[in-house]
Amino acid sequence: MIRKFARLDAPPEVVTSMFHDLEGWPAWMAGVRSVRTLERRDPPEHPERVRTIEVVQVQAGRALRQTLECRLEPRGLVQRQLRGRFRRWDAAWRFLEPPEGTGTTISFELEIELGLLGAVIPGRMVQAIIDDIFVATVRTARKHCRALLAAEARPESGGPTRHRLADEVLLEVLAHPDHLEIRLGGKRYRLEEIEGP
Questions:
Q1: What is the tens place of the pLDDT at every residue in 102-114?
Q2: 164 confidence band (pLDDT: 50, 70, 90)
Q3: Ranges of H-type helices in the chain
Q4: 23: Cβ–Cβ under 8 A, 6 or more apart, which residues?
Q5: Burial of residue 104 (number of CB atoms within 10 Å: 0-12, 13-18, 19+)
Q6: CA-CA distance, 15 to 7, in Å (whole number)?
């Protein structure tokens, strides 16, 4: 499992709304070229809405087409690949209010099994691609949040408001079969299980 965290100086409601606007992803999400909604389910007994979408992305110079089931949660987005190039691709985005009370902490978790692709693509290359996509997505989310907040501020204030938005990745946790790798502040740490006495 891959875990990543980042910070945006925009309220969780704005970030959640931006990620829930699935067909709006091509306007801001890194690499996404098109999104087409195939099915909508809004069960009345659950607060979550479910969408089945087809996404076309360009990553590492190649087009990738996936059919995803997306569960739109009150403060998150859970995605599961139904069809695509990977044996397994499950992602969860969570949009949390940080302890200091301003902005949003983005939590991203990815469970990925490459299947046949794993035979030709080294794991480190996959990790580098995922790192690049995450950083680019946070950067473009920052820009899109800035535009959304500026548009919201115009009617009340009579003019655009500047917001300082951070796009730094705070923490990454990578689960390997025999250890955890933690990346924090530009440093890497390896945690191995220590057997007790």
A1: 899 999 999 988 8
A2: very low
A3: 12-20, 123-157
A4: 35, 36, 37
A5: buried
A6: 11
Spatial distance between the Cα atoms of 143 and 162, rounded to a whole number of angstroms: 12
Taking only the tens place, the pLDDT of each residue in 53-73 is 999 998 768 888 999 999 999
Length of the chain: 197
Per DSSP, what are the bridge partners of residue 65? 56
CATH, domain range 2-30+73-191: 3.30.530.20
Residue 163 phi, psi (nearest 5): -125, 135
Taking CB atoms within 8 Å and a gap of at least 24, the contacts of 162-166 are 163/9, 163/10, 164/9, 165/8, 165/9, 165/10, 166/7, 166/8, 166/9, 166/103, 166/142
d(C-alpha 106, C-alpha 102), whole Å: 13
User: What burial letters (b/e) apply to 156-172, b meaning 16+ CB within 10 Å?
Assistant: eeeeeeebebebebbeb
- Measured torsion, CA atoms of residues 151, 153, 157, 158, in degrees rounded to the nearest 10: 0
Domain ranges of the chain: 2-30+73-191
> Is 119 strand, coil or helix?
helix
Please state the pTM of the whole predicted model: 0.74
93: number of Cβ within 10 Å: 20
Q: How far is CA 130 from the centre of its chain?
A: 10
Average pLDDT rounded to a whole number, residues 121-142: 85
Q: What 3-state class would DSSP assign to 87?
A: coil
